[in-house]
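ENTRY TYPE: paired fold submission
RECORD: A
CONTENT: sequence, then structure tokens
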Amino acid sequence: MPLTRGDRDPAEPGGPDAALEADASSGALFERHGDGLYRYALMILADHAAAEDAVQQAFANLVGRSRARLIRAPLDYLRRAVRNECYTLLRRRVRDIARISSNGLLVEPVSGDPDRPEERLSLDRALRALPAEQREVVHLKMYEGLTFREIAELIDVPPDTAASRYRYALAKLREALARRT
């Protein structure tokens, strides 16, 4: 006869309550941080479907971990997991990221004049032309509000490297946008 919920000690490791707690906490984490993690993955991958896959895989790995509840900083863990998934996907790609057909924009309208979509399109094209490492730092700095030290810890580079990637990216964006105007 199969065990039911009442047949085990709820505190027993691997018992049904442990799985329920992991699912509940990952669900709450997804509700709170899923959109931001998706935007982070999108900025790295420049591909909507691949970004969704990366976030989904990171959460699946979290739920699959037997000690998921012991993670002290779940958002930091998930950012690193999403980043790892993104770079795994980039390594698997055989086509050049610049030739990805556009499924939509990397930059979603936040504010500004909705009658000027050409500016958003220009920015989107300029972002897509950046190397993934530079797009990633731009996203973490501008959209996530992380410091260069936090970015450096996340992507495992010195803070000066994170800052220089950001500066190079902004210079390339300025140049690309100036050519389009």
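RECORD: B
CONTENT: sequence, then structure tokens
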Amino acid sequence: MNRRTANRIVMWVALCGAPCFLSAQPARGAGPEDEAKLERKMRDAYADADYMAALEAAEKLHKLRPDNSDDMYNIACLHCLLGQKDKAYEWLEKAVEAGYDDAAQLRQDPDFTVIRGEDRFRRVVRRILREDRSADDNDDDEGDDADDDDDEESERTERPATGDDERRRLGERINELTGKLIEHAEKKDYEKALNVATEAHDLAEKSGIPPLRGLTTYNMACMNSLLKNQDEALDYLEAAAEFEGFARGMEAQMVSDSDLDNVRDDPRYEKVLKTLKKKYGKKDESLKFEVRLPKNYQESKAAPILIALHPYGGDIDEAIARWKHAADGVGAILIAIRGPAEVDEGKYQWGNDFDSLETEIIDALDEVIERHKVDEDRVVIAGFSQGALVAYAMAVRAPEVFCGLVPVGGTFRLESESDFDDEDLGDLRLFIMYGDEDVRNVLRTNRQAARRFKRAGATVETKVFEGLGHEFPPDSDEETLRALRFVLDE
């Protein structure tokens, strides 16, 4: 389920007909309030697994916003959850035609678990990967500057090349080969498909990029299975399960993937499934947080607060290490929060139930406010990577709570157009940081975020680091301190 128009209900976590109280035909002049009501109805019905009611709300949203690709994507999700595969494909293909381009989300969205292993689904993914996205900067901001990196607020620092150019080139070539592999497999020319899979696998090993190595190793398992090379297929399947970032969603992929039908009865196949279930099948927990008082803290003086969110696979200690210098530099109480979902021993992620995250993060803040003397007008939320994505979402959802936001290398996902009607957004100060060699979606959506927040009246500064990929910036202590001072207007 896409959250950009449904408050990002529970993306990557798979969750009849309750009555619908809104007319199927939108009223003349329907506006943000109508959309917000429908989004809430869809969100609530989805969370209750009432997919028919959620579908009715999604269809009404589509009538209000007929060109919105995310609404089409949501309709596809709900048809799939209702077992209506043909309808799911129809709306998924419409969404791509209308501009939906998040292949990473599509490949991992559990709403499509039952069709993820099918050739038609792979064709949709391949189409997205092959589309020319030359108009990325104009997604929904026609008339804006093509690149906000040149704004007067933007600033670049020089950094030597790190070899990421070569890795990116290898990644693009692997994507091309994956498309060819699928074409050969669709024609049942499995020998050619295996040859292409082998070339892609060799390039992935050369790249050293774990997700690509996991993907190409899994593809080697599939092609060998189709050729009834059972031992080779299982060898590659066991190897693919060792790549943590890829293996997290591998259990569902294996269960629905017809390419592996020739090895399902082998005990080694069952052993891989059990290993994945044990390692990645842990249930979500509640958020945990730790409070760190700044050096030279004075209990009598109201202190600002910095809420720090770790990246995917991080923990509280990592958040403290990243942000303690900046917090000390401005005398801020640091609240380091741990995500609710354990992905490995001691490693956590945030999930995508932003409703629950919002409630629990604000509860943690309230608890700190009760125990310490706090300047409630100076609360900042910051994070890196997935933590930055969550920080963006919290600032948009509750701008009255925060004075500023420091997202580092995160993706910005618009939940609802109506969210940007909140006048409190104009009081926010943002310091956005990312590398110019990060993935395309990070570059594009951070530029989009800067434009949207500026239009809402917020004060925005962007700093782009040359030669930096998906990493924390160099001299991170000084960079985070500078950013925190900016958003606190010091």
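NOTES ON RECORD B: The chain is about 50% helix and 10% strand. The longest strand covers residues 374-384.
STATUS: closed
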